[in-house]
Give the backbone structure.
Amino acid sequence: MEQRDKLTPVENLALDKLDTQFDEVIRCTPNAIDGFSERFPSLADRVSSRAQRHGVELGNVFRPGVPDFLGVQETGEYLFVEVKGAGDGLRHSQLKWLRDFRDLEVEVWFVDSNDGATERMNSSRLDAYSLKDKTGTGSEVVEVESGLAVQIPGSLAASVQLSAGDKADWSVVDSSTLELDT
């Protein structure tokens, strides 16, 4: 990847990790699709086909809020990765992007600290919260002492900072939607 010197230390560590897992890693910007399509036309076509299966035109993805990196395999498998260091949160444009493209393969990586990030990136202290688990199907409703409960995937609970024993407010949006306020 060109211009590694313009990346933050945490982004460089994420890039190192992604380079070991993917055939190509692209630094995403709102205009990155142009360079990707020109440099790797057949690869861009395969990734685009996979994205279209989720109802997404790949060209629409590269807009403000796009994650930091796109890792791509020759098979067309891909993963968008947003990297966040200590005290860094998701911006409004990133939250909107994640909402709009929640059906794509996306992970947000949180690192405890920019200091010593190498250790954290390579240890269990790196948490990758996958947004693939945004909905539940076939979740069993079980009876508990205080009423009924439904399990949600651990990655989803972690992404909204819920732990066992936490309390959450809820409201009924409509006859088929229950909203949690954490």
The longest strand covers residues 78-84. The helical segments are 9-21, 32-39, 41-53, 58-61, 92-100, 117-121, 154-159. The beta strands are 24-27, 69-72, 78-84, 106-110, 127-130, 141-144, 147-150, 169-174, 177-181. Residues 116-127 have pLDDT under 50 and may be disordered.
